């Protein structure tokens, strides 16, 4: 029985480098691609270089509140951060889905989701809302921050560590070198 188990385990181990990254990219595309793209669309009105109230309010909620939601009072720094966020929400997910510079894009998304989560917790007051914050080991997998984003991170860390997998532009470029 043990030799059979070992053969199965070895077969699974040898296929993991192909299956896991491809599966992670598929899950990312199926669950998060349009989430991030739709979020990016809410941050500008005419084009990504001219963020709207929604972009500033989502990324700098307390600052926007302090200036009465008057975008003209935001600094160039605020503009640059919002524009970078807009481009990140479109470009990084696309790179992950097509498997191009996947590790770099996954690390970028890990940073993005971390900042997004901190903004949701401290900027938007999620830290004071137990249903939004959630709690690990509480039998309820519905908390937006601790529960759902932990799953997002597992997908992204898988891609950062394993790369894009066999079915990717990264693999095509690597084979051409």
Tally the helices: 8
Which overall shape is indicated by the principal axes computed on the Cα atoms? flat
User: Radius of gyration, rounded?
Assistant: 20 Å
Order of helices and strands: HHHHHHHH
- Total domain units: 1
SS content category: mainly alpha
Report how far apart the termini are.
Answer: 44 Å
Please report the total strand number as a whole number: 0
What fraction, in percent, of the residue positions are helical? over 70%
Proportion of beta-strand residues: under 5%
Mean pLDDT, all residues: 93
Low-confidence stretches: none
Characterize the main sheet: none
Question: What is the structure about, briefly put?
Answer:
With 177 residues, the chain is mainly alpha-helical.
Word description of this protein:
With 177 residues, the chain is mainly α. The protein has one domain (22-164). The chain is built from 8 helices and no strands. It has helices at residues 2-41, 53-59, 61-66, 76-98, 102-123, 130-133, 144-162, 169-176. α5 runs antiparallel to α7. The longest helix is centred in the N-terminal third of the chain and has 40 residues, at 2-41. The protein is flat, with a radius of gyration of 20 Å. The model has no long low-confidence stretch (mean pLDDT 93).
Element layout with pairings:
Elements: H1 2-41, H2 53-59, H3 61-66, H4 76-98, H5 102-123, H6 130-133, H7 144-162, H8 169-176
Helix pairs in contact: 1-4, 1-7, 4-5, 5-7
Protein name: Putative DoxX family protein
Main location: membrane
GO cellular component, one term: membrane
């Amino acid at each position: 029985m043990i030799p059979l188990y070992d053969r199965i385990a070895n077969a699974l181990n040898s296929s993991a480098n192909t299956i896991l990254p491809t599966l992670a990219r598929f899950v990312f595309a199926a669950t998060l691609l349009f989430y991030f793209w739709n979020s990016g669309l809410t941050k500008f009105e005419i084009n990504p270089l001219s963020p709207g109230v929604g972009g500033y309010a989502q990324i700098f909620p307390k600052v926007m509140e302090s200036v009465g939601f008057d975008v003209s009072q935001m600094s160039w720094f605020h503009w640059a951060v919002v524009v970078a966020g807009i481009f990140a929400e479109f470009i990084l997910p696309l790179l992950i889905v097509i498997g191009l510079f996947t590790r770099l894009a996954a690390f970028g998304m890990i940073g993005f989701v971390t900042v997004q989560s901190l903004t949701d917790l401290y900027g938007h007051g999620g830290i004071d809302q137990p249903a939004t914050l959630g709690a690990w080991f509480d039998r309820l997998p519905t908390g937006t921050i601790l529960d759902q984003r932990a799953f997002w991170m597992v997908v992204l860390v898988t891609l950062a560590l394993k790369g894009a997998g066999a079915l990717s532009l990264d693999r095509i470029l690597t084979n051409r070198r």
